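so im writing up the methods section and need the SdpI/YhfL protein family protein record in one place, dumping it here so i stop losing it
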Amino acid sequence: MNLFITLIIVPLVFIAFIGYFTGSKEFILGPNDDERKKSIKQKSIVQSWATIFLFLLTNFLFDLFNLQDERLSDIPFVFPELFYLIILVVSYFIFLVINNKKISA
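--- predicted struct ---
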């Protein structure tokens, strides 16, 4: 059953999310957004991915120059990928609000 959920349900839900977040009707359940809303959503996607890139670059530079905080070394971080996914989604919504205010002004 887990294999069924992983191979069938998760990609369908993912495609529906992509359609909603990009505003494109090319995906399943995509909203009927006009060109302005599509542009705002696409700008927000690019800005959120740039934010993730900035976090990953900062993490790499901390590792490269050995700048880790020793107080945090004893704390186990079970799912570090989840942290980056949360940053990605939260930054998308933050940039969506910012871009909506810019365009509407």
